[in-house]
Predict the 3D structure of the following.
Amino acid sequence: MRRWWLDEQAHAGPEHLDAGYVAAYDRKAGFDPTEDIEVLRRHGLGPDSLVVDLGAGTGTFAVSVAPSCRRVVAIDVSAAMTAALRTRIERLGLDNVTVVDAGFLTYVHEDEPADIVFTRNALHQIPDFWKGIALDRIASFLRPHGVLRLRDLVFDFAPHEAEERIEAWMSAAVGDPAAGWTADELAQHVRTEFSTYSWLLESMLDRSGFDILERSFRRSAYGTYTCGRRGS
Ligand SMILES: C[S@@+](CC[C@H](N)C(=O)[O-])C[C@H]1O[C@@H](n2cnc3c(N)ncnc32)[C@H](O)[C@@H]1O
């Protein structure tokens, strides 16, 4: 590895490396992937699809999409997350989910090109320079017209609006850290993590060869993008 390459574990978020946090993660996240799977079906997800989930965490999306596709590759840099996911797969008796210990910048895709790449709440872990590289790497293993569904904390406003929008977003935070993200946690996210502006992310997506097919935002601070990879 080049000596200037980012250490993904050092940027993984210390909580994600902590087995105690991981054990409580699903309740805190409250993630229901039903809509993601429905949207992906509309964009070609089917029994022959190869699906890659980057930053898969405990694998809520990976295990939910598995019955609807041929194979899922679920990737994460946190050994605590991949251990929880392996246990979950075994418990569910799924035989078409492969778990890989790697990240956006280290995963090597040795299969045929993927049909779908999903990534939720993970890309903000790395700075923008690296997001550009991560999106290029995703485009390199996604087939032409394959679909990237990207969900993350992304700021859909201009810098001069930041104070008002961030405060409005934080005012909707939960009080109980076991059931969601508190205002303190959101403040820490803004201070220490790498959520970017929508207009920067969208430029990176374009440069990496993606067309944005659908886009939606919640409270100007949480973006969901469904993108098609250009090319033939
Ligand atoms: C907030 S969790 C989201 C997990 C899951 N995608 C979900 O939606 O529930 C963020 C995940 O990203 C992983 N992560 C952090 N940095 C990463 C990187 N560079 N490459 C891949 N995954 C990373 C963390 O280990 C963690 O599992």
Notes: The CA atoms of residues 74 and 99 lie 5 Å apart.
